[in-house]
User: Fold these one by one.
Assistant:
Number 1:
Amino acid sequence: MPKKRTGSIRREREADQLADLLAEAERLGLRFVVAEERPRLVAERGAPPAGFLERLQAMREPLRDAVCALERLARSPEPSPGVVLGGDGVPSLPCATCGGRHFWAPAHRPAAFGLWYCDTCEPPPVLPLRRLSLGSQGRPSGNG
């Protein structure tokens, strides 16, 4: 079994921490809104506990990226321009823009929805997502 790269492990850990932080925010009656490319915390039930705010501050950068990515994904979907989809709605050829063979899609949408992105042209945010790689024969592999 191949070893995971350190960056991959760090991203997975960061994604887990973000998921926990967002779940806690929801339990506390907090929500995030994006204004001028920056997420803002809206408290619907009073000020959050100091410990939560400290964890929020520690995760500021990845949280900003995740909230902005979620806001972007909430808009009407626009497929990546270089991704060529097959009849099953998943990438079937290398990216027409860069020739990349690795793709990702948001995990909260069906894989066959057609909302796939090239991993090179548009690197994935730190969110749960589906991955797909085209092998040398053009056959997909991954969790798409």
Number 2:
Amino acid sequence: MLLGFLRNVSRALMSKHRFRDLLGRTSQRVELLRVLDRINTLLHDPELSEETVWRVMLEGVTHGRGLGFNRAVLFTPDTPRQLVANYAVGYAHKAAAEAYWQLHPLTEQPTDEWINGLVERHRQPPSPAG
């Protein structure tokens, strides 16, 4: 009887751990979707310059809250048959990236506050044409 009780307690604890892991992974996905949705919203903000949007987008997807890429490049058309790398973020070497991450760890800052900080840091006035 005691053995049966202990088995049930063990199963309950394992279920609790699985649920906690699932909840953690789900929370991370929700945060990722929140970041990507906010970046998508910025793409349509007429008050932001194209350069500001691209820089925020690249930094957002490479950040630990975003897709977590270690670098990203945005290619834009220069001619109908040629692309040019106009914007890029990231480090060429792992050691440099890790040194930066050590100095700037992830914070518990709310997503909107973090994205607004990115926008302000990269803000460029919109060009007269667009």
Number 3:
Amino acid sequence: MIERSVYIIFVFGIISGLAGILSVYWWPAVAGIDSLPEPQRAIRRQKRLGRGFYTLVCAISGLVFLRMRVSGPVEMLFGVMLVRCLLEIGLRNWKPKILFKPRCVARDVKTGQRLGEVVSETRDWSRGTIEAFKVRTDQGNLIEMSADSVTIESEGSSDQY
């Protein structure tokens, strides 16, 4: 009875690991993460992918070792949980170095004049639209501009948002 329950737990672990990996590709944007700048979003996606991968690997290895009868079901379940907890601790403490921080430049819609660097944005969460941008001018002043009065460009390219 316990062995069958542990088999079911490992099968659910395999399913949840696959779902975690596939969710990174099918739903790259998760509620609450969309408001983060791109480097932090990329780090969160990497961590979600890592969690799905090690959940899948732990569940598969536990199922294989249980099938080979290396140890009993309770010991195997405890060992897999311990390894998964240690991997989770390692992943939570992992802080990658961000080599490149993309900069966005605000330009006036009418004149095309460079206003400054975009610092933040104000969103209307009920409609899912951006209402305004906070822009730091070249003189260091902070101004707030409505979303339809500026165009946002990634510095160094002609990509417009």
Number 4:
Amino acid sequence: MHAAAAPASLEKREGVTFLDPTAGEVLYWFRGPRNWDPTLDLSAFRIIGHFRDPRDLAYNQYWWALQHPNDDPPEVAEEKRRKVLEMGIDRYVLGRNNASIYKLMRSLADGPMGEGVTWTSYNQLVSAFDYMMDNLCRVFGRAPSEVAEVLRSERPEAVTGNDRWLKGGGA
């Protein structure tokens, strides 16, 4: 897997994540719109788009702002955290505008690759696990029966008995 830490490009050059259609079994991972170029011709690739509920994303951003380090000097970072905390989660979440992320998804869904994009979501992971796994197996050319046993401990109903899962709240 190659995490895309720079803008995507189909040309090999300095300062970009080179998307190599001849690389074979490589997964390029884009965590957000800042490194994605919706104008690229990606017809040589299989595309998986992960849709995240806007409410869930904003909620997660609130906790991220309070807990994760950033590049600011410590006193500036602490002041930003104090403002977020004073704002409270409801006001913070209602004030978030994540439109750029959803504009990117829309361009992917409505663009020339639209029909070829396989979409996943957290909702599928929790509520339609088999449907999501079937779709991902299709993308990677695997039969669901090939991965069923491996995924048994990853199923939502198995989380409480799986020591490899991170649990919070005393679970």
